[in-house]
Write a structure and sequence with these properties.
Jann2411-like fold; binds zinc ion; two-stranded antiparallel sheet; CGNR zinc finger domain-containing protein; alpha+beta; disordered N terminus; two-stranded antiparallel ribbon; Znf_CGNR; ABATE; about 45% helix; disordered C terminus; ABATE_dom_sf
Length: about 210
Amino acid sequence: MRVEAGGQPKRVTPSFESTLQYAGGVDRIRPLNRLEALLNVAAPDGQARWPAIVAVLREHGEQVDHLGPAQEKELLGALDRLRALLRIEDIDLAAEHINRIFDDVAARPRLSKHDGTPWHVHVDPEGAGWGTWLLASSALALAAAIQEHGRRTWGQCEAESCERYYVGDGRGGERHYCSARCASRARVARHRGRARNTAPAPPPGRGGVRT
Ligand SMILES: [Zn+2]
């Protein structure tokens, strides 16, 4: 969010992945990347991770100096809802969930031009709170990904004892892991599992054997 000359806060972040070049600089807008980072720093007991959430928002160009307890509650609530959405494996159910978010936040696309930026699309209603903004812009980015790829490009990492989320851009085929590290960990675990299953039974040990 940026504060305009008139004192009215205005969010700079549009809803699509894009690069905005304008007199004030260049903004790389990456709502999917932002969502992934937010979910991975915000545990369900989000309270303790609040400073990390604020840091992610700042990295993504938001003006966060005036966030208080009310905004914290809104954003943590929005993240809970988005986390639940990312866990839905069925594409049709995920699409329904996204549509419910659009309904609940009264999403309405509009072109906006502020702080010297070029025209760009927002879907959060004018003057919406932070929670609504995060829900609306994340839902639109996820909806665009479904439209483009016809499948989920996100999920929760399937590697053992990893609970991170990934929100991919759809490039490189279907994903199941948060990182190359987890993918290779899972590959090794599968390989070991197969080796165990095909190995001959180990000889009986001394335990239980009378001597
Ligand atoms: Zn992982």
